[in-house]
Amino acid sequence: MRQTLKVQLDKEYNIIISDEKFSVLKDFIDIETKGQKRLFVISKKVYKLYAESLNLNNENTLVLNDGEKEKNFKNYLKIIEKAEETGLTRKDVIIALGGGVIGDIAGFAASTYMRGIDYIQIPTTLLSMVDSSVGGKTAIDLKDAKNLIGTFYQPKAVFININFLKTLDKRQFQSGLGEILKYAFIEDNCMYKHSLFLFEYLTLGCEKVFDKEPLTIMRIIEYCLNLKISVISQDEKESGLRKILNLGHTLAHALETASKYKKYTHGEAVIQGIFFILKWAYKQEMITYSYFRLSHELLTKYGFKEEEFKYTPEELISIMKKDKKAADGKITFIVPCDKKRVKEVKFTEDDVVKMF
Ligand code: GLY
User: Roughly what angle, to the nearest 10 degrees, separates helices 100-112 and 73-86?
Assistant: First the structure.
């Protein structure tokens, strides 16, 4: 199976989603990078598992450790130095092969090396397949602020091969489900021309998802990306509509930062953010009891549980204030306001204290 989606922004590119053999992926890479010198930036886990089948042993590669805490300035500089040592020029290309961390940091390096060279995203985790590999957000973290340094810089192509998911561990797979579930709550805002009824599809299709049934997984990735393409085509640089993709993220980034990027996967943190804001929206009578209950059931079905935070509201709020989504002394949350719809609400610090 193979699906091609087109992203048409100032820069146009294709996203190819497939379950074909890795030799086909290798061909896509060769065709897309014909005549270019290339540097692969790869996650250690992925390198160990796939270097041989992707025939990477003779390539210029930089292998980075896994985990959000690796998305830092030191590793960014390693990529830049490796690019220079490899002799990459403005005409050449960086290939990000790994999860969201690799995609974000390699994309950021590509966007700044020689004022910007091509990069290709080859996401290997569910989270990066359904979200972070598309849309051009690149970043590195500071110790006390996630994604604080970054650019909007679109890739040259995105190659998604769902066979990588066969070796993805359960926790990372579930982290990807966190971002997929997010799309179920914003589906109607995205204004995509067809509806899969994702909320209902996920409610009914849970078993097939956990079985990693290829057709189901391909369909979900394709649909979430179509929703995302619809959003970024209307607002590439997040001045309006794109903010809805941050549902759950205000609290998520605070939790990830407070725990020094060690306790939560990104998807787990996003789901805690969704639980939190659903409860608040229900208390404010912005959503009905029935939607609140169905939403809870959906998240629980996918193995997520609402947690008590071990951080004080003050600790979390001090991080939220530094987040790039905050402005004019206000903290922004994306809030469910109807079935499958959300809106942006700005809160004062005092308002946020009362939300806990
Ligand atoms: N991950 C949210 C976005 O790309 O805007």
Answer: 60
